[in-house]
Task: structure prediction
Amino acid sequence: MRRLLFLLIVSVTTIAGFAQRTVTGKVVEEDTKDAVIQATASLLSGEKVVSNAVTNAEGNFSVKAPSDGTFTLRVTYVGFKTYTKKITVSDGKSVSAGTISLAPDAIMLQGATVTAHLAKVQSKGDTLIFNADAYRVPEGSVVEELVKRMPGAEIDDNGNITINGKQVSKIKVDGRDFGDSKTALKNLPTSIIEKVRAYDEKSDLARITGIDDGNEQTVLDFGLRAGMNRG
Result:
């Protein structure tokens, strides 16, 4: 009987140890109440980021807490003021931060105050659409500077691009194939780009044969401004 009780206690303790501690919430724009897509939600212990996640198409996020304790929840998105809040996780339970409203950030630019209600990321079906004008890049820069600023995008030392952890395997310009990612990043001027679309499409083999092989490739498609062409 004692052995059975001991095993039961150990089992309960073990299950509690594996309990999923998460902090959840929804991020919206303060003015419009629209969902903010691809905002970054981070948990900090002191000044150190211990976990982070990005909001989905509905503005929802779920970020894992590494242990019980008090953390700072920080939510950031380009063009909006940073939101912070103290969150206490206890007993291995999930905590809801509720609905978080982000206020537009006023940026001082050339002596004038402008409201940075920019940096829009639209989600249409499985496609993410980034508005190039929403990101402040150096004058005369190439699209590498633009991609670096896009939420969820990363570029490694070899010029490989990932979007939300998925490696981009094809670059297009206005829907047409355009060499490799490194060539595009170093040569396409930011000034001619209006939209950047990220989406998955069937593999080249599947499109040629008409037989779905179950493989998809992630595409980054740079849309040109009106009046521009590839020459």
Q: What stands out?
A: The helical segments are 2-17, 143-149, 181-187, 204-209.
